Amino acid sequence: MKVTFHGVRGSTPCHGPDTAKYGxxxxxxxxxAEGQRPxxxxxxxxxxxxxxxxxxxxxxxLDAVALVxxxxxxxxxxxxxxxxxxxxxxxxxxxxxxxxDGTSFMRSVSNAIRQPTFPxxxxxxxxKFEFHDVADNDFMIDGFSVKSRLVxxxxxxxxxxxxxxxxxxxxxxxxxxxxxxxxTLPEGVRExxxxxxxxxxxxxxxxxxxxxKKTWGHCTSEFAIGIGSACNARRxxxxxxxxxxxxxxxxSLKPCDATGITEVFVAREGATITL
Length: 275
Fold this sequence. Notes:
Layout: E1 2-7, E2 28-32, E3 39-41, H1 47-57, E4 63-67, E5 91-96, H2 105-112, E6 128-133, E7 137-141, E8 144-150, E9 158-164, E10 167-172, H3 187-193, E11 198-202, H4 207-212, H5 221-230, E12 235-239, H6 247-251, E13 263-266, E14 272-274
Parallel strand pairs: 3-4, 4-5, 5-6, 10-11, 11-12, 12-13
Antiparallel strand pairs: 1-2, 1-14, 2-3, 7-8, 8-9, 9-10
């Protein structure tokens, strides 16, 4: 599998000279394997750049899958700007959580892409879309085996585990660290991350920032690495960087010791990992 980071920020895009190295786009990761449809993990502003690369590489209409963790803006804002879905014949199959009031994933996306917050509606886009609600589910996407599990955050949120060809990826973009300072590993998170080859995990806050914003739904790099260590992850990608985090600050990030993890690294826009 080939894993490429197209957007690594949380909350809001933050382009500028202080974020040029790691990138300023919000959450989007692509997973590709020979003979399979590409899988897109979240649809933040990084999706636009994946779309540009896709259209530059082929004349074929898009046929892809999106696994969306939740409906916050930084995870769906790139969707209507995704060039390939503006072409005839494009197809995108989307999975994501329904809301607590029972509103389907499809209805939630449709409500986001409409007046007064956007000038056109979902049905105005030329691609064909197929939506699926997920919570705690196991399913197949072509040759990929996928798990979705509910993850503590603000509003219904899932993480995903993808397995293919004996390799595995866990994607937990937003994860509320326990407020009391304890290390609690939800069973669903363990199921996603246990013995995974690559864990991509929320690490938005420093310890000092978490004390101020501890109810905002995110966690520290120390907590992310602790998840990786407890689950015997082979690699941990620190992800969902705060928009105020500069390249220099990310360069100086010194992850704590993590027993059993072969590599801990800071996710960078444009980086590709082959598993």
